[in-house]
Specification:
heterotrimer, A: 218 residues, 9 helices, C: 52 residues, mainly alpha, 1 helix, rod-shaped
């Protein structure tokens, strides 16, 4: 299992693996927003939590179709499916690799981008915490979407259509956590719900993802 | 004589052929009757004026938007467990109907809200939830269309329906949290079920029945089409191989 | 026969209009596609001499 994880990490970091693309996209979004809404500090401060979360979410979306595509094309996915470890574990490791190469960098970079958007006070702390708790859910949910569309040639757009509605609860609670944090309010409730969604997704979605992979490999 | 007999496509076609005229007739009767009753023969509401008449289209369509998805969920489960093709095709058939109902609920909700809220769209929790439901329908239908092999499509869309249902419920709760957290005063409740006077309630019931029957009629028609379509593809494939 | 809709006439009528248009469209599409598939199936079955 760990071997699988390391293999995917190595593949992602290699040239052409797409590592850093998500981060670059996140940066671009962060830079574009002030051009769109004006440079006024008050406006930016108000929308920063939401923009940062949406940007992170979209950046995660970018690398989703890579999760299974390469293995599917060269037949390694068939091998993985018949390997001694359960497909559910394979899928979880794939999601973990995605998180380590896409989600985690976003968590680290977000506070820096927060500065660009005039994020206030405690918001930085809560941004990091909420993204750290929420991005794993994005990876796991995204893996499910990737599993559904793995057989499709140009499934990228469909993948986005399927996955984005599933991201809504995580986005709502994540952004709300940051928003409350910036205003110095209690963040317990949305944070707990965010963590709950992540935990439940990690526990349950791999079964659905594995089922989808099996269907697509038939 | 078990209900599972109708899982047999041939039996389903026979029974639905027989039932369709009756269901259609009943649907037309209740729908047209209910709408005419509600539109022409009910008074105005002292608070909302004549816009209360929108209740007869907004509430039934919203109800059907949800019920259609529930039916798809049940049909998907039956497909996963018992592999009855009619069930999978019925779910596929129901989706566009549910999506249309969702659209109607959204449009009538927005139009109704305009004079009340002064804006064409408001991120009211209920309307927002229906917007998300619309996206779920869109994704489901798109997935059916994208996959060539019918059995694969049936399998994948039923898994999507299952997972989607859980997230749809989650979203409903999240959206309530998201809106009510900030604006306590914003929700003008369009939940007509609270304190609806009898004079509005009875025609509303008839309209709801009309929408349900319309749904049943259309599901029967569309499932028949899907069964025929599947058979057509099978015959074409056989011809190509011969 | 049209009831006195007052100042909300546009609102109510457009709501009903949109609804009826969407429902009519749904019904029309369902029937049209149904007829088309039925015709195609019958043609195909005739072509294959009704075997199968």
């Amino acid at each position: 299992m760990i071997a699988l994880l390391l293999r995917d990490l190595r593949l992602a970091i290699r040239a052409g693996g797409g590592f850093g693309l998500g981060l670059a996209f996140f940066l671009i979004v962060t830079v574009l927003v002030p051009f769109g809404v004006g440079p006024e500090g008050g406006t930016l401060a108000k929308i920063a939590p939401g923009i940062l979360w949406v940007g992170a979410l979209l950046a995660c979306l970018l690398s989703l179709d890579r999760i299974f595509a390469l293995d599917f094309e060269d037949g390694s996915l068939d091998l993985l499916a018949t390997a001694p470890i359960p497909l559910e574990a394979v899928v979880t490791m794939k999601a973990a690799a995605h998180w380590l190469t896409t989600g985690l960098p976003l968590v680290v970079a977000a506070p820096v981008f927060g500065v660009l958007l005039n994020l206030q006070g405690e918001g930085f702390f809560w941004l990091t915490v909420s993204l750290a708790l929420g991005t794993p859910a994005l990876s796991v949910i995204g893996t499910f979407g990737a599993a559904l569309t793995v057989g499709l040639k140009r499934g990228g757009l469909l993948l986005s259509l399927l996955v984005l509605p599933l991201y809504v609860p995580t986005l709502i609670f994540g952004a709300e956590t940051v928003r409350r944090g910036t205003e110095g309010m209690e963040t317990g409730a949305p944070l707990m719900l965010l963590a709950g969604i992540t935990a439940a997704s990690i526990a349950l979605l791999p079964f659905a993802s594995a089922a989808a992979i099996r269907v697509n490999l038939r | 004589m078990s209900i599972w007999e109708y899982a047999n496509p041939k039996k389903f076609m026979q029974t639905s052929a027989w039932a369709l005229p009756w269901v259609t007739g009943l649907a037309a009767l209740t729908l047209v009757g209910g709408l005419i009753w509600g539109f022409f023969f009910t008074p105005d509401d002292y608070k909302q004026g004549s816009t209360v008449k929108i209740i007869y289209i907004h509430v039934p369509s919203a109800m059907m938007a949800i019920n259609a998805w529930v039916m798809m969920l049940v049909a998907s489960l039956i497909w996963i467990v018992r592999r009855h093709h009619v069930s999978a095709l019925a779910a596929k058939a129901a989706a566009p109907i549910g999506m249309t109902m969702t659209l109607i609920a959204l449009f009538t909700g927005a139009i109704w809200g305009q004079p009340m809220w002064g804006t064409w769209w408001a991120w009211d929790p209920r309307l927002t939830s229906f917007l998300i439901l619309f996206l779920f329908y869109l994704g489901y239908i798109a997935l059916w269309e994208a996959i060539e092999d019918p059995d694969t499509a049936a399998d994948l869309t039923s898994v999507l329906c299952l997972v989607g249902s859980v997230f749809a419920l989650l979203s409903r709760y999240a959206v309530n949290f998201w809106n009510q957290g900030l604006h306590q005063d914003a929700s003008l409740s369009m939940d007509a079920q609270e304190n609806v006077a009898d004079v509005f309630w009875y025609p509303l019931l008839v309209c709801m029945a009309g929408f349900v029957l319309l749904f049943v009629t259309l599901v029967l028609i569309r499932t028949r089409t899907e069964i025929r379509s599947r058979r057509l593809k099978a015959l074409e494939a056989r011809e190509r191989m011969a | 026969m049209i009831p006195e809709l007052g100042k909300y006439a546009g609102t109510v009528l457009s709501a009903y209009g949109v609804t009826l248009a969407l429902l009519a469209g749904l019904v029309a599409l369902s029937l049209w596609r149904g007829a088309r598939v039925k015709r195609a199936l019958e043609a195909q079955e005739r072509r294959m001499g009704r075997n199968g």
